[in-house]
Protein backbone atom coordinates (compact mmCIF):
# COMPACT_ATOMS: atom_id res chain seq x y z
CA UNK A 1 0.00 0.00 0.00
CA UNK A 2 1.38 3.40 -0.90
CA UNK A 3 1.25 6.48 1.27
CA UNK A 4 3.46 9.26 2.57
CA UNK A 5 4.38 9.32 6.26
CA UNK A 6 2.92 12.34 7.99
CA UNK A 7 3.31 13.87 11.42
CA UNK A 8 0.97 13.03 14.25
CA UNK A 9 -1.44 15.81 15.07
CA UNK A 10 -2.17 17.26 18.46
CA UNK A 11 -3.91 14.72 20.67
CA UNK A 12 -2.79 11.74 18.59
CA UNK A 13 -0.51 8.98 19.79
CA UNK A 14 2.81 9.94 18.20
CA UNK A 15 5.23 7.47 16.68
CA UNK A 16 7.76 8.23 19.37
CA UNK A 17 5.31 7.60 22.23
CA UNK A 18 6.75 4.65 24.16
CA UNK A 19 3.38 3.41 25.45
CA UNK A 20 1.91 3.52 21.96
CA UNK A 21 4.92 1.74 20.43
CA UNK A 22 4.84 -0.93 23.12
CA UNK A 23 1.14 -1.53 22.50
CA UNK A 24 1.70 -1.82 18.74
CA UNK A 25 4.58 -4.26 19.25
CA UNK A 26 2.43 -6.38 21.56
CA UNK A 27 -0.43 -6.36 19.05
CA UNK A 28 1.66 -7.59 16.10
CA UNK A 29 3.95 -9.97 18.00
CA UNK A 30 1.71 -13.07 17.61
CA UNK A 31 1.60 -12.60 13.85
CA UNK A 32 5.37 -12.18 13.64
CA UNK A 33 5.94 -15.42 15.49
CA UNK A 34 3.29 -17.16 13.34
CA UNK A 35 5.39 -16.21 10.33
CA UNK A 36 8.45 -18.01 11.65
CA UNK A 37 9.92 -15.18 13.68
CA UNK A 38 10.53 -14.95 17.39
CA UNK A 39 7.81 -12.33 17.90
CA UNK A 40 10.20 -9.85 19.47
CA UNK A 41 11.92 -8.50 16.33
CA UNK A 42 12.31 -4.73 16.09
CA UNK A 43 9.40 -3.15 14.25
CA UNK A 44 9.19 0.06 12.29
CA UNK A 45 6.07 2.20 12.80
CA UNK A 46 5.29 4.93 10.25
CA UNK A 47 2.36 7.31 10.35
CA UNK A 48 0.29 7.67 7.18
CA UNK A 49 -1.89 10.64 6.35
CA UNK A 50 -5.13 9.94 8.16
CA UNK A 51 -8.76 10.95 7.82
CA UNK A 52 -11.20 12.67 10.14
CA UNK A 53 -12.42 9.44 11.74
CA UNK A 54 -9.23 7.42 12.18
CA UNK A 55 -5.44 7.48 12.27
CA UNK A 56 -3.36 5.04 10.26
CA UNK A 57 0.13 3.54 10.59
CA UNK A 58 2.14 0.97 8.68
CA UNK A 59 4.00 -1.55 10.83
CA UNK A 60 6.87 -3.52 9.34
CA UNK A 61 9.93 -5.54 10.27
CA UNK A 62 13.07 -4.48 8.34
CA UNK A 63 14.27 -7.28 6.10
CA UNK A 64 10.97 -9.17 6.14
CA UNK A 65 8.42 -8.91 3.32
CA UNK A 66 4.85 -7.90 3.99
CA UNK A 67 3.81 -5.96 7.03
CA UNK A 68 0.71 -4.61 8.69
CA UNK A 69 -1.62 -1.63 8.61
CA UNK A 70 -3.01 -0.36 11.90
CA UNK A 71 -6.02 1.94 12.10
CA UNK A 72 -7.11 3.54 15.35
CA UNK A 73 -10.51 5.20 15.56
CA UNK A 74 -11.08 8.72 16.76
CA UNK A 75 -14.06 9.36 19.03
CA UNK A 76 -17.48 8.64 17.51
CA UNK A 77 -16.21 6.60 14.54
CA UNK A 78 -17.97 3.47 13.32
CA UNK A 79 -17.00 0.53 15.58
CA UNK A 80 -14.03 -1.33 14.17
CA UNK A 81 -15.68 -4.70 14.81
CA UNK A 82 -18.32 -3.83 12.20
CA UNK A 83 -15.70 -2.91 9.60
CA UNK A 84 -13.77 -6.09 10.40
CA UNK A 85 -16.89 -8.23 10.00
CA UNK A 86 -17.76 -6.61 6.69
CA UNK A 87 -14.22 -7.06 5.37
CA UNK A 88 -14.17 -10.72 6.43
CA UNK A 89 -17.51 -11.33 4.72
CA UNK A 90 -16.23 -9.52 1.63
CA UNK A 91 -13.17 -11.77 1.49
CA UNK A 92 -15.44 -14.84 1.60
CA UNK A 93 -17.42 -13.38 -1.31
CA UNK A 94 -14.28 -13.08 -3.42
CA UNK A 95 -13.64 -9.37 -2.91
CA UNK A 96 -9.94 -8.55 -2.64
CA UNK A 97 -9.38 -7.01 0.79
CA UNK A 98 -6.53 -6.98 3.32
CA UNK A 99 -6.76 -9.87 5.76
CA UNK A 100 -8.18 -8.83 9.13
CA UNK A 101 -5.87 -9.92 11.96
CA UNK A 102 -7.27 -8.11 14.97
CA UNK A 103 -10.11 -5.70 15.67
CA UNK A 104 -11.87 -4.36 18.73
CA UNK A 105 -11.52 -2.08 21.70
CA UNK A 106 -8.22 -0.47 22.64
CA UNK A 107 -6.06 -3.12 24.31
CA UNK A 108 -4.30 -0.26 26.06
CA UNK A 109 -2.00 2.43 24.76
CA UNK A 110 -3.47 2.84 21.26
CA UNK A 111 -5.97 5.57 22.05
CA UNK A 112 -9.12 4.03 20.53
CA UNK A 113 -10.76 1.07 18.81
CA UNK A 114 -8.31 -0.63 16.49
CA UNK A 115 -8.20 -2.61 13.24
CA UNK A 116 -5.05 -4.50 12.29
CA UNK A 117 -4.76 -5.96 8.78
CA UNK A 118 -2.10 -7.31 6.48
CA UNK A 119 -0.44 -4.80 4.20
CA UNK A 120 -1.29 -5.27 0.52
CA UNK A 121 0.94 -3.97 -2.25
CA UNK A 122 -0.53 -1.66 -4.84
CA UNK A 123 -0.93 1.94 -5.92
CA UNK A 124 -3.64 4.05 -4.29
CA UNK A 125 -2.84 7.55 -5.61
CA UNK A 126 -5.43 8.20 -8.36
CA UNK A 127 -3.29 10.21 -10.84
CA UNK A 128 -0.70 7.45 -10.79
CA UNK A 129 -3.36 4.78 -11.33
CA UNK A 130 -4.60 6.75 -14.34
CA UNK A 131 -1.23 7.63 -15.88
CA UNK A 132 1.59 5.35 -14.70
CA UNK A 133 2.86 3.35 -17.71
CA UNK A 134 3.45 0.37 -15.44
CA UNK A 135 -0.32 0.19 -14.81
CA UNK A 136 -1.37 0.52 -18.45
CA UNK A 137 -2.36 -3.14 -18.66
CA UNK A 138 -4.43 -2.94 -15.49
CA UNK A 139 -6.31 0.10 -16.79
CA UNK A 140 -7.64 -1.80 -19.81
CA UNK A 141 -9.72 -4.12 -17.61
CA UNK A 142 -10.09 -2.14 -14.39
CA UNK A 143 -13.55 -0.69 -15.15
CA UNK A 144 -14.99 -4.17 -15.63
CA UNK A 145 -13.14 -5.39 -12.55
CA UNK A 146 -14.71 -2.61 -10.48
CA UNK A 147 -18.18 -3.50 -11.78
CA UNK A 148 -17.71 -7.16 -10.86
CA UNK A 149 -16.34 -6.20 -7.44
CA UNK A 150 -19.35 -4.01 -6.66
CA UNK A 151 -21.70 -6.84 -7.65
CA UNK A 152 -19.92 -9.11 -5.17
CA UNK A 153 -20.11 -6.45 -2.44
CA UNK A 154 -23.82 -5.90 -3.03
CA UNK A 155 -24.44 -9.62 -2.63
CA UNK A 156 -22.84 -9.81 0.83
CA UNK A 157 -24.83 -10.39 4.00
CA UNK A 158 -22.51 -9.42 6.86
CA UNK A 159 -25.13 -10.11 9.53
CA UNK A 160 -26.60 -7.61 12.01
CA UNK A 161 -24.65 -4.39 12.26
CA UNK A 162 -24.12 -2.01 15.13
CA UNK A 163 -26.87 0.39 16.11
CA UNK A 164 -26.06 3.01 13.46
CA UNK A 165 -25.70 0.40 10.72
CA UNK A 166 -28.48 -2.04 11.58
CA UNK A 167 -31.76 -2.95 9.93
CA UNK A 168 -32.95 0.69 10.00
CA UNK A 169 -29.93 1.66 7.86
CA UNK A 170 -28.29 5.06 7.84
CA UNK A 171 -30.53 8.14 7.61
CA UNK A 172 -31.56 9.09 4.09
CA UNK A 173 -28.44 10.49 2.42
CA UNK A 174 -30.14 13.42 0.69
CA UNK A 175 -31.90 14.46 3.90
CA UNK A 176 -28.67 14.11 5.88
CA UNK A 177 -26.65 16.35 3.60
CA UNK A 178 -29.45 18.89 3.20
CA UNK A 179 -29.47 19.25 6.98
CA UNK A 180 -25.69 19.66 7.03
CA UNK A 181 -25.93 22.27 4.28
CA UNK A 182 -28.53 24.26 6.19
CA UNK A 183 -26.25 24.40 9.24
CA UNK A 184 -23.14 25.71 7.46
CA UNK A 185 -21.96 29.27 8.18
CA UNK A 186 -21.50 30.02 4.46
CA UNK A 187 -24.61 29.98 2.21
CA UNK A 188 -24.57 27.99 -1.03
CA UNK A 189 -27.63 28.89 -3.16
CA UNK A 190 -26.58 26.54 -5.99
CA UNK A 191 -26.43 23.55 -3.64
CA UNK A 192 -29.82 24.52 -2.19
CA UNK A 193 -31.25 24.61 -5.71
CA UNK A 194 -29.69 21.22 -6.50
CA UNK A 195 -31.12 19.74 -3.30
CA UNK A 196 -34.65 20.75 -4.28
CA UNK A 197 -34.13 19.27 -7.76
CA UNK A 198 -32.86 16.01 -6.27
CA UNK A 199 -35.88 15.82 -3.98
CA UNK A 200 -38.30 16.39 -6.89
CA UNK A 201 -36.67 13.80 -9.14
CA UNK A 202 -35.90 11.10 -6.55
CA UNK A 203 -36.27 7.58 -8.08
CA UNK A 204 -38.04 4.67 -6.45
CA UNK A 205 -35.62 2.78 -4.15
CA UNK A 206 -34.24 -0.65 -4.90
CA UNK A 207 -34.16 -3.39 -2.27
CA UNK A 208 -31.29 -2.54 0.12
CA UNK A 209 -27.98 -4.34 -0.11
CA UNK A 210 -24.64 -3.92 1.58
CA UNK A 211 -23.07 -0.71 0.23
CA UNK A 212 -19.35 0.12 0.57
CA UNK A 213 -20.16 3.81 0.98
CA UNK A 214 -16.93 5.28 -0.43
CA UNK A 215 -16.01 3.16 -3.45
CA UNK A 216 -13.68 5.32 -5.57
CA UNK A 217 -10.08 5.77 -6.66
CA UNK A 218 -8.08 6.57 -3.54
CA UNK A 219 -9.76 3.73 -1.64
CA UNK A 220 -8.55 1.06 -4.08
CA UNK A 221 -5.13 -0.54 -4.54
CA UNK A 222 -4.04 -1.31 -8.09
CA UNK A 223 -1.00 -3.25 -9.34
CA UNK A 224 0.06 -4.14 -12.89
CA UNK A 225 -2.08 -7.28 -12.68
CA UNK A 226 -5.19 -5.30 -11.66
CA UNK A 227 -7.14 -4.55 -8.48
CA UNK A 228 -5.37 -5.89 -5.40
CA UNK A 229 -7.55 -4.55 -2.57
CA UNK A 230 -10.61 -2.52 -1.63
CA UNK A 231 -9.85 -0.31 1.38
CA UNK A 232 -11.68 1.95 3.86
CA UNK A 233 -14.88 0.11 4.72
CA UNK A 234 -15.77 2.48 7.56
CA UNK A 235 -18.87 3.82 5.76
CA UNK A 236 -20.26 0.39 4.81
CA UNK A 237 -24.01 0.19 5.41
CA UNK A 238 -27.24 -1.18 3.99
CA UNK A 239 -28.63 1.00 1.26
CA UNK A 240 -29.48 1.33 -2.42
CA UNK A 241 -26.77 -0.37 -4.53
CA UNK A 242 -26.89 2.51 -7.05
CA UNK A 243 -25.28 4.71 -4.38
CA UNK A 244 -21.91 2.98 -4.90
CA UNK A 245 -22.22 2.94 -8.68
CA UNK A 246 -23.15 6.61 -8.90
CA UNK A 247 -20.45 7.69 -6.46
CA UNK A 248 -17.79 5.96 -8.57
CA UNK A 249 -18.90 8.08 -11.56
CA UNK A 250 -18.73 11.50 -9.86
CA UNK A 251 -16.45 13.85 -11.79
CA UNK A 252 -14.29 14.57 -8.74
CA UNK A 253 -13.11 10.94 -8.76
CA UNK A 254 -12.02 11.03 -12.43
CA UNK A 255 -8.88 13.07 -11.64
CA UNK A 256 -8.64 14.39 -15.17
CA UNK A 257 -9.16 11.00 -16.81
CA UNK A 258 -11.42 10.78 -19.82
CA UNK A 259 -13.66 7.91 -18.71
CA UNK A 260 -16.89 8.64 -16.89
CA UNK A 261 -16.18 5.81 -14.45
CA UNK A 262 -13.26 6.91 -12.24
CA UNK A 263 -11.56 8.45 -15.27
CA UNK A 264 -11.08 4.93 -16.66
CA UNK A 265 -13.97 3.68 -18.78
CA UNK A 266 -17.65 3.87 -19.64
CA UNK A 267 -20.73 3.25 -17.56
CA UNK A 268 -21.84 0.67 -20.13
CA UNK A 269 -18.69 -1.36 -19.48
CA UNK A 270 -19.13 -1.00 -15.70
CA UNK A 271 -22.76 -2.15 -15.76
CA UNK A 272 -22.15 -5.02 -18.15
CA UNK A 273 -19.61 -6.51 -15.73
CA UNK A 274 -21.88 -5.69 -12.78
CA UNK A 275 -24.82 -7.60 -14.31
CA UNK A 276 -22.60 -10.50 -15.39
CA UNK A 277 -21.46 -10.98 -11.78
CA UNK A 278 -25.05 -11.12 -10.51
CA UNK A 279 -25.73 -7.46 -9.81
CA UNK A 280 -29.12 -5.87 -10.45
CA UNK A 281 -30.08 -5.32 -14.09
CA UNK A 282 -29.38 -1.60 -14.34
CA UNK A 283 -29.10 0.68 -17.34
CA UNK A 284 -26.96 3.81 -17.61
CA UNK A 285 -29.94 6.11 -17.03
CA UNK A 286 -30.48 4.41 -13.67
CA UNK A 287 -27.23 5.97 -12.43
CA UNK A 288 -27.94 9.57 -13.46
CA UNK A 289 -29.72 10.64 -10.27
CA UNK A 290 -27.22 8.82 -8.08
CA UNK A 291 -24.25 10.43 -9.80
CA UNK A 292 -25.91 13.81 -9.18
CA UNK A 293 -26.53 12.88 -5.54
CA UNK A 294 -22.86 11.92 -5.19
CA UNK A 295 -21.86 15.28 -6.68
CA UNK A 296 -24.13 17.05 -4.19
CA UNK A 297 -22.68 14.98 -1.34
CA UNK A 298 -19.10 15.86 -2.30
CA UNK A 299 -20.02 19.53 -2.67
CA UNK A 300 -21.39 19.58 0.88
CA UNK A 301 -18.33 17.71 2.16
CA UNK A 302 -16.06 20.32 0.51
CA UNK A 303 -18.04 23.06 2.25
CA UNK A 304 -17.71 21.26 5.59
CA UNK A 305 -13.94 20.92 5.09
CA UNK A 306 -13.63 24.65 4.47
CA UNK A 307 -15.77 25.37 7.52
CA UNK A 308 -13.49 23.20 9.70
CA UNK A 309 -10.59 25.46 8.79
CA UNK A 310 -12.57 28.69 9.25
CA UNK A 311 -13.85 27.60 12.66
CA UNK A 312 -10.34 26.94 13.94
CA UNK A 313 -11.18 23.28 14.60
CA UNK A 314 -8.37 22.28 12.23
CA UNK A 315 -6.15 24.93 10.68
CA UNK A 316 -5.08 23.68 7.27
CA UNK A 317 -4.41 25.42 3.98
CA UNK A 318 -5.39 22.14 2.30
CA UNK A 319 -8.84 22.23 3.94
CA UNK A 320 -9.16 25.89 3.00
CA UNK A 321 -8.41 25.01 -0.63
CA UNK A 322 -10.96 22.17 -0.57
CA UNK A 323 -13.55 24.69 0.64
CA UNK A 324 -13.07 26.60 -2.60
CA UNK A 325 -13.88 23.46 -4.61
CA UNK A 326 -17.58 23.63 -3.78
CA UNK A 327 -18.17 25.60 -6.99
CA UNK A 328 -16.85 22.71 -9.11
CA UNK A 329 -19.68 20.52 -7.84
CA UNK A 330 -22.20 23.32 -8.18
CA UNK A 331 -21.22 23.71 -11.84
CA UNK A 332 -21.64 19.97 -12.49
CA UNK A 333 -25.05 19.94 -10.78
CA UNK A 334 -26.34 22.97 -12.66
CA UNK A 335 -25.13 21.38 -15.91
CA UNK A 336 -27.41 18.41 -15.13
CA UNK A 337 -30.41 20.48 -14.09
CA UNK A 338 -30.32 22.82 -17.11
CA UNK A 339 -27.45 22.38 -19.61
CA UNK A 340 -26.12 25.48 -21.33
CA UNK A 341 -26.76 26.09 -25.01
CA UNK A 342 -23.83 25.84 -27.40
CA UNK A 343 -23.40 29.61 -27.61
CA UNK A 344 -23.61 29.99 -23.82
CA UNK A 345 -21.02 27.28 -23.35
CA UNK A 346 -18.64 28.91 -25.81
CA UNK A 347 -18.95 32.25 -23.99
CA UNK A 348 -18.11 30.60 -20.66
CA UNK A 349 -15.15 28.80 -22.24
CA UNK A 350 -13.74 32.06 -23.58
CA UNK A 351 -14.04 33.72 -20.16
CA UNK A 352 -12.25 30.74 -18.60
CA UNK A 353 -9.36 31.01 -21.06
CA UNK A 354 -8.95 34.71 -20.27
CA UNK A 355 -8.99 33.99 -16.52
CA UNK A 356 -6.34 31.30 -16.91
CA UNK A 357 -4.13 33.67 -18.86
CA UNK A 358 -4.02 36.04 -15.87
CA UNK A 359 -1.83 33.63 -13.88
CA UNK A 360 -0.44 31.29 -16.52
CA UNK A 361 2.99 32.91 -17.06
CA UNK A 362 4.95 32.46 -13.84
CA UNK A 363 8.00 34.32 -15.22
CA UNK A 364 6.23 37.51 -16.30
CA UNK A 365 5.70 39.95 -13.42
CA UNK A 366 2.13 41.28 -13.76
CA UNK A 367 1.43 45.00 -14.13
CA UNK A 368 0.55 46.99 -11.02
CA UNK A 369 -3.10 46.77 -9.98
CA UNK A 370 -3.48 50.54 -9.62
CA UNK A 371 -0.63 51.88 -11.74
CA UNK A 372 2.96 52.78 -10.84
CA UNK A 373 1.98 55.81 -8.77
CA UNK A 374 -0.24 53.94 -6.28
CA UNK A 375 0.48 54.09 -2.55
CA UNK A 376 1.57 50.44 -2.28
CA UNK A 377 2.99 50.07 -5.78
CA UNK A 378 6.39 48.68 -6.65
CA UNK A 379 5.63 45.82 -5.87
CA UNK A 380 1.93 45.92 -4.96
CA UNK A 381 -0.19 43.11 -3.49
CA UNK A 382 -0.67 41.28 -6.77
CA UNK A 383 3.03 41.46 -7.64
CA UNK A 384 3.98 40.17 -4.19
CA UNK A 385 1.60 37.25 -4.56
CA UNK A 386 3.08 36.48 -7.97
CA UNK A 387 6.56 36.35 -6.41
CA UNK A 388 5.39 33.96 -3.69
CA UNK A 389 3.62 31.72 -6.21
CA UNK A 390 6.73 31.62 -8.39
CA UNK A 391 8.80 30.56 -5.38
CA UNK A 392 6.35 27.91 -4.20
CA UNK A 393 5.87 26.28 -7.58
CA UNK A 394 9.18 26.95 -9.25
CA UNK A 395 11.84 26.99 -6.54
CA UNK A 396 10.56 25.40 -3.33
CA UNK A 397 8.44 22.57 -4.73
CA UNK A 398 11.19 20.59 -6.48
CA UNK A 399 13.34 20.73 -3.34
CA UNK A 400 10.67 18.97 -1.28
CA UNK A 401 9.67 15.34 -1.30
CA UNK A 402 6.30 13.62 -1.29
CA UNK A 403 3.83 15.32 1.00
CA UNK A 404 5.84 18.55 1.18
CA UNK A 405 5.83 18.95 -2.61
CA UNK A 406 2.08 18.36 -2.64
CA UNK A 407 1.47 21.02 0.01
CA UNK A 408 3.68 23.50 -1.86
CA UNK A 409 1.60 22.91 -4.98
CA UNK A 410 -1.63 23.44 -3.01
CA UNK A 411 -0.21 26.70 -1.62
CA UNK A 412 0.80 27.88 -5.10
CA UNK A 413 -2.72 27.19 -6.37
CA UNK A 414 -4.17 29.17 -3.46
CA UNK A 415 -1.95 32.14 -4.27
CA UNK A 416 -3.07 32.00 -7.92
CA UNK A 417 -6.69 32.12 -6.74
CA UNK A 418 -5.99 35.20 -4.66
CA UNK A 419 -4.28 36.87 -7.64
CA UNK A 420 -7.32 36.21 -9.83
CA UNK A 421 -9.70 37.41 -7.13
CA UNK A 422 -7.81 40.70 -6.85
CA UNK A 423 -8.10 41.18 -10.60
CA UNK A 424 -11.62 39.89 -11.23
CA UNK A 425 -13.34 40.22 -7.86
CA UNK A 426 -14.34 43.91 -7.85
CA UNK A 427 -16.25 43.70 -11.15
CA UNK A 428 -17.75 40.34 -10.16
CA UNK A 429 -19.02 41.78 -6.88
CA UNK A 430 -20.69 44.74 -8.61
CA UNK A 431 -22.40 42.45 -11.11
CA UNK A 432 -23.58 40.14 -8.33
CA UNK A 433 -25.10 43.03 -6.39
CA UNK A 434 -27.04 43.96 -9.51
CA UNK A 435 -28.31 40.37 -9.93
CA UNK A 436 -29.39 40.09 -6.31
CA UNK A 437 -31.17 43.43 -6.41
CA UNK A 438 -33.10 42.27 -9.48
CA UNK A 439 -34.19 39.14 -7.57
CA UNK A 440 -35.20 41.23 -4.58
CA UNK A 441 -32.81 39.62 -2.06
CA UNK A 442 -30.15 41.33 0.02
CA UNK A 443 -27.34 38.79 -0.18
CA UNK A 444 -26.37 35.17 -0.81
CA UNK A 445 -27.69 34.03 2.56
CA UNK A 446 -31.14 35.43 1.84
CA UNK A 447 -31.11 33.86 -1.64
CA UNK A 448 -30.12 30.46 -0.24
CA UNK A 449 -32.88 30.66 2.38
CA UNK A 450 -35.49 31.66 -0.23
CA UNK A 451 -34.54 28.69 -2.43
CA UNK A 452 -34.49 26.27 0.51
CA UNK A 453 -37.93 27.39 1.71
CA UNK A 454 -39.46 27.57 -1.78
CA UNK A 455 -40.27 31.29 -1.55
CA UNK A 456 -43.07 31.83 -4.13
CA UNK A 457 -41.91 35.40 -4.83
CA UNK A 458 -38.67 34.08 -6.32
CA UNK A 459 -38.87 33.51 -10.07
CA UNK A 460 -37.35 30.00 -10.63
CA UNK A 461 -35.82 30.78 -14.03
CA UNK A 462 -34.28 34.07 -12.94
CA UNK A 463 -32.98 32.49 -9.73
CA UNK A 464 -31.33 29.68 -11.72
CA UNK A 465 -29.59 32.10 -14.06
CA UNK A 466 -28.40 34.29 -11.17
CA UNK A 467 -27.07 31.26 -9.31
CA UNK A 468 -25.31 29.98 -12.43
CA UNK A 469 -23.67 33.38 -12.96
CA UNK A 470 -22.41 33.26 -9.36
CA UNK A 471 -20.95 29.79 -9.87
CA UNK A 472 -19.19 30.78 -13.08
CA UNK A 473 -17.64 33.83 -11.37
CA UNK A 474 -16.43 31.71 -8.47
CA UNK A 475 -14.91 29.13 -10.82
CA UNK A 476 -13.15 31.83 -12.84
CA UNK A 477 -11.26 32.60 -9.64
CA UNK A 478 -11.03 29.17 -7.98
CA UNK A 479 -10.38 26.92 -10.99
CA UNK A 480 -11.09 28.36 -14.45
CA UNK A 481 -9.70 25.21 -16.08
CA UNK A 482 -12.78 23.36 -14.78
CA UNK A 483 -14.93 25.38 -17.19
CA UNK A 484 -13.01 24.27 -20.27
CA UNK A 485 -14.38 21.46 -22.46
CA UNK A 486 -12.81 18.09 -21.66
CA UNK A 487 -9.97 17.01 -23.98
CA UNK A 488 -11.08 14.81 -26.87
Description:
With 488 residues, the protein is of the alpha+beta class. The protein folds into 3 domains: 18-118, Phosphorylase Kinase, domain 1 (2-Layer Sandwich), CATH 3.30.200; 126-298, Alpha-Beta Complex (Aminoglycoside 3'-phosphotransferase, Chain: A, domain 2), CATH 3.90.1200.10; 341-483, no CATH class. 49% of the residues lie in helices and 9% in strands. A 5-stranded antiparallel β-sheet has the order 1-2-3-5-4, with helices on both faces. A two-stranded antiparallel ribbon has the order 6-9. The two termini are 33 Å apart. Residues 1-16 and 163-168 have low confidence and may be disordered.
Topology of this protein?
Blueprint lengths: L17 H17 L9 E5 L5 E7 L7 E6 L6 H13 L7 E5 L9 E5 L7 H6 L4 H19 L18 H10 L6 H12 L8 E3 L8 E4 L2 E5 L6 E3 L2 H8 L17 H10 L11 H24 L5 H7 L2 H12 L4 H17 L22 H16 L6 H37 L4 H10 L6 H19 L10
Antiparallel strand pairs: 1-2, 2-3, 3-5, 4-5, 6-9, 7-8
Helix pairs in contact: 4-8, 5-6, 5-9, 6-9, 6-11, 6-15, 7-9, 9-10, 9-11, 11-16, 12-16, 13-14, 14-16
Key terms:
49% helix; 3 domains; 9% strand; 16 helices
For the secondary structure, the number of strands is: 9
Spatial shape: globular
Helix content: 40-55%
Helix run count: 16
Rg result: 24 Å
Strand arrangement within the widest β-sheet reads 1-2-3-5-4
The H-level CATH homologous superfamily of the largest domain, spelled out, is: Aminoglycoside phosphotransferase (APH), C-terminal lobe
Q: H/E element string?
A: HEEEHEEHHHHEEEEHHHHHHHHHH
CATH architectural type of the largest domain: Alpha-Beta Complex
**CATH top level label of the largest domain:** Alpha Beta
Amino acid sequence: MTGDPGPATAGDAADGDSEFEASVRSLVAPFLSAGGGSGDEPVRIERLSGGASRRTWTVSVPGRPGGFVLQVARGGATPMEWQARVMTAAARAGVRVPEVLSAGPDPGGLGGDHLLTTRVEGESIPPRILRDPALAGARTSLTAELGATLARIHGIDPGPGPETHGESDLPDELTTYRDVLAGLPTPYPALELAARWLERTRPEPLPPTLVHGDFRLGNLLVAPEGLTAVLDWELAHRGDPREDLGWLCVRAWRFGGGGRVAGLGSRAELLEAYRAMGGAHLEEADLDWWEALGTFRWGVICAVQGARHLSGAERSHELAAVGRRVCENEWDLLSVITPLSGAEGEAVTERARRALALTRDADRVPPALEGPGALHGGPDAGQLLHAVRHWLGGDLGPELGGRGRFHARVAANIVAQVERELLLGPDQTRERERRLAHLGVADGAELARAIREGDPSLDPGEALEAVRADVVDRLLVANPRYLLPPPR
